[in-house]
Amino acid sequence: MDFATTGKPPLTEPQQREATRLCVETGLILLQHGAESALVENLARRLALALGVPRAEVALLANAVVVTTLSEGHCITTVRRNEDRGINMHMVTEVQRAVLAAEAGALDLEGYRARLATIKPLRYPRWLTSVMVGLSCACFARLVGADWTSCAVALVAAGVAMAVRLQLVRLHFNPLVNFFVTAFVATSVAGQGAIHGIGDKPQVAMASCVLLLVPGYPLINSISDMVKGYINTGLARGMYAVLLSAGACAGILLAMTVWKVWVWL
């Protein structure tokens, strides 16, 4: 029966255990780096079939991945705790490619494990990320009618804030603290334009420089998960996005209170 289902000879118990571990690690990597729940479950199940397991069940929680495989009357369940590693579509894409290679028969258990171990996050230099984020916020300010001086203020404020944010990530600060401090720094730098009369529209610069803190991806994933029936993970991601937004708002309000710049309101 198993051979007819998977097209491969039945797995031994050690092989099934190894396949289960690979499935849960695959799902964990995807969930940690921002993949939607439907994709995580789909790829974990497809990998199980590709590795010779006739049936696999996947359960996703807000902070854990559970995988159960069934083969030849043996049932093996394993759980992995999920820790957010930040959104990284390079990781998601590379894991997808590895699963496709396993489905094509190019990778067996050992080959897939070796391939999975080689997948590392691709990250741009921090200075380049800070500059590009600053440019994007400055461009938005220009789109809504800011003069070039105000755009320059938004560029500097957003660039400095992004550099602070990346440094806090490197030091493993809580994301809520990260968003709070980053929003405070961005608003404080941009607020100098209003205090010293730099630019004609300092309020636009202050509003634009904090756009890097909009949790768009978690919100999109939240809606996508709930629409596709993953209510628990969808609600968890949505609440996480709300908390991040609240942290950013608190940082903005504190900076505006400290510097007494309320031109944004």
Keywords:
mainly alpha; 2 domains; 3-stranded antiparallel sheet; 3 strands
Fold blueprint:
Layout: H1 2-6, H2 13-32, H3 37-50, E1 55-60, E2 64-71, E3 74-81, H4 89-103, H5 109-118, H6 126-143, H7 148-170, H8 175-195, H9 202-208, H10 216-227, H11 231-259
Antiparallel strand pairs: 1-2, 2-3
Helix pairs in contact: 2-3, 2-5, 3-4, 6-7, 6-9, 7-8, 7-9, 8-9, 8-11, 10-11
Q: Can you describe this structure?
A:
The protein is elongated. It has a 3-stranded antiparallel β-sheet, with helices on one face. The protein contains 11 helices and 3 strands; from the N terminus they run αααβββαααααααα. A hairpin with a 2-residue loop joins strand 2 and strand 3. 66% of the residues lie in helices and 8% in strands. It has 2 domains: 117 residues, no CATH class; 134 residues, no CATH class. By secondary structure, the protein is mostly helical.
Q: How many E strands?
A: 3
Widest beta sheet: strand line-up: 1-2-3
Class per helix and strand makeup: mainly alpha
Q: Specify the helix fraction band.
A: 55-70%
Q: Evaluate the radius of gyration.
A: 23 Å
**What series of H and E elements makes up the topology?**
HHHEEEHHHHHHHH
Could you list the spans in which at least 5 consecutive residues all have pLDDT below 50?
A: none
The amount of beta strand, in percent, is 5-15%
Mean pLDDT: 91
Count of helical stretches: 11
Summary, kept brief:
The chain has helices at 2-6, 13-32, 37-50, 89-103, 109-118, 126-143, 148-170, 175-195, 202-208, 216-227, 231-259; strands at residues 55-60, 64-71, 74-81. By secondary structure, it is mainly alpha-helical. α2 runs parallel beside α5 (109-118) and α8 runs parallel beside α11 (231-259).
